[in-house]
Design brief:
alpha+beta; Rossmann fold
Length: 207
């Protein structure tokens, strides 16, 4: 299956690299800095869950988790791992390529400046008065509409549509989990300021 996926990515002008053992992943990622990672949960050596956590300690590269275990989906979407998307087996190679393209579209390079917050979409960082914090790509996509239109209330459904391009159904608990982590990261660079306010039906960013 990995070889078949690699062939499909080559036909779409990507340069895939196959790594078959989990113990070889971290060193390779640090050395080559890929644009996106497809990470199977059931790898020999270090498993995909542990690898995703470890990669997030030094990189914000988009990560798509691959799993055959339906019971893992809530955990993956809860951002406990910092993953950007998931793909369930069995799958179509064309679907996987399309999902990777969608994730890469969400992470294209632009820079936004919103009053005292500076958002750098190339690096997935937020800067406040020279204090910087790194976000996951999903956290960044969640923050972007809030920061672009401060004081406006966004429903959970609106935020979900911005975070995920494939119109999936994500429960409120998942959105709230993202918001909780995002609040903490923003507070860490702004002396505890609470930027994101909970309101009836959704959230808004308060300058």
């Amino acid at each position: 299956m990995a070889n078949l996926l690699a062939d499909y990515f080559k036909m779409s002008d990507y340069l895939p690299q196959l790594i078959h053992h989990g113990d070889e992943v971290i060193d390779w990622v640090k050395q080559h800095q890929p644009n996106v990672i497809l990470l199977d949960i059931m790898l020999p050596g270090k498993n995909g869950i542990d690898l995703c956590k470890e990669i997030r300690q030094f990189s914000n590269v988009p990560i798509l988790m691959v799993t055959a275990r339906v019971d893992e989906i809530d955990r993956l979407l809860g951002l406990e791992l910092g993953a950007d998307d998931y793909i369930c087996k069995p799958f179509s190679p064309r679907e996987v390529v399309a999902r990777v393209k969608a994730v890469l579209r969400r992470t294209q390079t632009i820079e936004c400046n919103i009053d005292t917050l500076q958002l750098d979409e190339h690096r997935f960082t937020v800067n406040f008065h020279q204090n910087e914090v790194a976000l996951t790509s999903v956290e960044f996509q969640l923050l972007k509409p809030l920061a672009n239109k401060p004081e406006r209330i966004f429903t959970r459904e609106q935020l979900m549509q911005n975070m995920y391009s494939d119109q999936r159904i994500v429960n409120n608990r998942t959105i709230d989990s993202h918001i909780k982590k995002l609040r903490k990261k923003l507070a860490d660079i702004s002396d505890g300021k609470d930027w994101i306010q909970s309101v009836y039906g959704g959230y808004r960013l308060v300058l």
